[in-house]
Design goal:
With 256 residues, the chain is of the alpha+beta class. The protein folds into 3 domains: 30 residues, no CATH class; 49 residues; 131 residues, no CATH class. The protein is built from 6 helices and 16 strands. The strands form 4 sheets. A 5-stranded mixed beta sheet has the order 4-7-6-5-16, with helices on one face. A 4-stranded antiparallel beta sheet has the order 8-15-14-13.
Length: 256
């Protein structure tokens, strides 16, 4: 009986302890502080992270305004997405706008790894049908005048549009003066709603292959990198006009 009474008193004493719970969201992920009997223990709050995605630049701005973006928020403009958080210190909740590249930009990118090689008629069709609205009309007209010709010759030389095939035969491009060694295409990088008007100038190098009667278009990787940087700066400038109090930088958001 005495032992049972002691156990009952101990249970009553345990139940009478005061337990306090404090929650702190000022640190990454949040913390929970549990105090019992004068002893405090700390636990991770482990709240679920919120991940939202919008469909257009206008939606991105509206969402940013709805969550109260301010000086504590952060927007990061990348090549494939624009990400943001209302609190850059905690970064538990963030939202993003996915940036999808345009078909015309994809075709320009392909030229860096595999130059386009076509006869003049094919090159004209490529510019007219695959790259419309890129300001390449003059190049299309020039290509329409191109005519490959072979003639007897004892010369030996190699220059734009003329390449020696031996001591007795030379391939020559008629109307060579019409073909520039470079031309510029104005290309939209993205087709995401609200971002289609961000266009960049891309320098395309022209190589004429008389022996195979081909026109080649080449693009350097450096020119593509410069173009992407220009487009991201354009997008950042527009976002700054809508979110003047929020820091907006170029970069990739480490949100994991």
């Amino acid at each position: 009986m005495i032992a049972e009474a002691i156990r009952s008193i101990e249970e009553m004493a345990r139940r009478s302890r005061t337990i306090s719970i404090d929650v702190c969201d000022e640190v990454e992920g949040g913390k929970v502080f549990v105090t019992e009997g004068g002893e405090t223990k700390t636990f991770d709050r482990r709240l679920p992270k919120k991940r939202d995605e919008v469909d257009s630049v206008d939606d991105f701005v509206d969402y940013a305004n709805s969550v109260g973006m301010s000086e504590s928020g952060m927007v990061m403009v990348g090549y494939q997405a624009v990400c943001a958080t209302a609190d850059a210190n905690v970064r538990r909740n963030w939202f993003k706008l996915k940036l999808c590249t345009s078909k015309r930009w994809d075709r320009i990118i392909a030229l860096a790894s595999e130059p386009l090689k076509m006869d003049p008629a094919g090159a004209r069709r490529w510019l007219r049908l695959k790259m419309p609205g890129t300001g390449t009309g003059d190049m299309v007209k020039a290509l329409s005048k191109v005519d490959f010709d072979r003639r007897g010759s004892s010369s030996s030389r190699s220059e734009h549009g003329r390449e020696s095939l031996g001591k007795s035969v030379e391939a020559q491009v008629q109307q060579i003066e019409e073909i520039p060694e470079h031309f510029t295409a104005r290309v939209p990088i993205w087709n995401t709603p609200g971002a289609t008007h961000f266009v960049v100038d891309v320098d395309i190098t022209v190589h004429i292959d008389p022996q195979n009667e081909r026109i080649e278009f080449h693009v350097s990787e450096d020119s593509l990198s410069r173009a992407v940087f220009v487009a991201r700066e354009q997008l950042r400038g527009e976002l700054r006009s809508h979110l003047p109090e929020t820091p907006i930088v170029l970069g990739t958001f480490d949100h994991e």
